[in-house]
Write a structure and sequence with these properties.
The structure is a homodimer. Chain A is an alpha/beta fold. Helices cover 44% and strands 15% of the residues of chain A. In chain A, the strands form 3 sheets. In chain A, strands 2-8-7-6-5-3-4 form a 7-stranded mixed beta sheet, with helices on both faces. In chain A, strands 9-10-13-12 form a 4-stranded antiparallel beta sheet. In chain A, strands 1-11 form a two-stranded parallel ribbon. In chain A, helix 2 packs antiparallel against helix 11, helix 4 packs parallel to helix 11 and helix 5 crosses helix 6. The longest helix of chain A has 36 residues. Chain A is globular, with a radius of gyration of 21 Å.
Amino acid sequence: MVVCMPDNITDLEVKALVDGVNLSDGHPRMSLSSTQSEIVAGFPEVFAQTRKLPVDVVEKSARNAFLSSIGQHTALSDGVTFRSCYSSSTAIDMIGKAIRLADRKVAMVEPTFDNLHDLLAGHGLSIHSVAESELAGGTLEDVIPAHGVLFTVSPNNPTGAVIDADRLHQIAAACADRDTVLVIDSCFRAQDLRAQYDMYAVLGQYDLDWATIEDTGKLWPLQELKAGFLNWNVGNPLPLARMYSDHMLSASPFILRIVELFAEDGRHGGYDRLRGGIQSNRTLARDHINLAPAYPESRISVDTFRLPEGVEASALYTELGEIGVHVLPGELFYWAQPKLGTDLIRISLARDPEAVVTGCQRVDQHLEAWRRVVIR
Amino acid sequence: MVVCMPDNITDLEVKALVDGVNLSDGHPRMSLSSTQSEIVAGFPEVFAQTRKLPVDVVEKSARNAFLSSIGQHTALSDGVTFRSCYSSSTAIDMIGKAIRLADRKVAMVEPTFDNLHDLLAGHGLSIHSVAESELAGGTLEDVIPAHGVLFTVSPNNPTGAVIDADRLHQIAAACADRDTVLVIDSCFRAQDLRAQYDMYAVLGQYDLDWATIEDTGKLWPLQELKAGFLNWNVGNPLPLARMYSDHMLSASPFILRIVELFAEDGRHGGYDRLRGGIQSNRTLARDHINLAPAYPESRISVDTFRLPEGVEASALYTELGEIGVHVLPGELFYWAQPKLGTDLIRISLARDPEAVVTGCQRVDQHLEAWRRVVIR
């Protein structure tokens, strides 16, 4: 068949190059692996197959494949309710809408991606900041709002910090004690093996209300063909089922099957390749930017660097944008206290290595020029 | 390539048959036409192409193709802002979230799909009912809330009623006079040529704040590969751009290009086939159910029948479900006064003719049995 195309495809590709290097958003934009390309080549067959199957069967099969491929076996048990969403943001927005109806206060980790805060704040929620370090260790007494909601992210973005099983036990127990709903956004889980202990087995040991978000949107360069899975315990006081049914019937069965096939590919080497690619891009980035990494132990598909004194992230962000390099300034991640992020810039590693190197070189050249001016 | 499949595909297909005939939801479940099948066969090529293009270019191209294919040429002008959404519900939910922030009262048409009401009500909005007949004719003085929002649907679901150009002029003028934001959900527009006058040209003639939803989700059997387009006037007081950017970057470029290709196919005969199929299914339904159609002039892909006295829609809905026919009871559409819908059932026509006939025959047999009991 002839697929109609705009006349100006070459112009546009040139424009994309002129526009520069996008290392800002965390959406995966690297090339497909050969086995992933084979799945894409089979799209028409997948479409024909999923047409014939009941949606709930396709949905459950995809979720089971994805969650078990990242170690979350207990998520498949009867005590867990789930829904497939267009995206993790759709799931988080439903949680925010439900929290407003339940009239609960929220404590949210800081730093984290400002979008998470903004999605909830748009519902008019009262949101209190909890430092990631407070969640990572020490007493939880003053951290968890009684009869409220604790919203955490693990692995966290941009820090890559993972709540380990021991700490999750403590947090879950503290939330259960205080009638606090524990929400965990685990969208980056597949990128970090340390996050792949069976989290749902821990949560299930407490008389706890909880909700989690699992996501494929950060993993595979599928042009936003993705699904977010919203999971919660039976009996959860947030009206999540209702928020969901008001909004959608299910994610696309076609997309769900693609998710399943990519998860199976992940299990058979795809996740290792994904993590290897991220690690190798991280090394390239750190080799090409003469700055200290802010989070040396991070394994997720972004990396963050600490700027020299006198350079403000938001100003640098603007200057870099003018020369065609798109990064994110650290202020965005400190959603309550932006000044704490003013010496940080974040770059995305979910790119082909060439893009990472080119972008980092331009950042470094720009900073070198700045250093020469300052030193002179 | 080998696409892995569950073992029990035949079992599942049997189960789907045993489960009965789904004439309830309005999601399109008919077969693809041959030219539509060709587009699906080209999915891998489409994926390869859209990968290379800037997302905003793909997005704009898809929207231009879709909106101009259904007569909305002025929607492409500079005074109109737009965003591509996962679905029309996603767009409507953003509108609801924005209305809450803007603290405006809402007047919403009744009857209409209860989902629209529920999506907004979940934000805690104050929603007042406006009878469709009041919007269709007569004075608008008491109908439009000053400094509020008027939420209408045209073509409306389930009635199929279309606000014509003359009436839209009156409604737009009245909203402009009262500083009321006019929201129009036009998700069924492509199914009814009477709704394809250039609505944006009318809206643009008034000093009016407005937002519209255009949607592909009701049109093509693409397993929820779809996009909703949220459009609004520059200067609109609802913070729609912010609600959007909190939630998403864009719809999938892959899906957007599929939308464009289906719109082009629509322009070259696909829409005529779509409307012809709906019309022919409507005739089949009316031939096979011995009930009066509630909305004789409707052109959209659902049809509604008036039940004999003594039959309650919600009870019939339950009984039909037990014998494997899934319809929707009219109470759902009268979101403020459910009793007004108690003598109505709605069936979907976006199915293959066999499903419509089978479902309608079962409904009719069930009602015949009821009549015999009553008459005896």
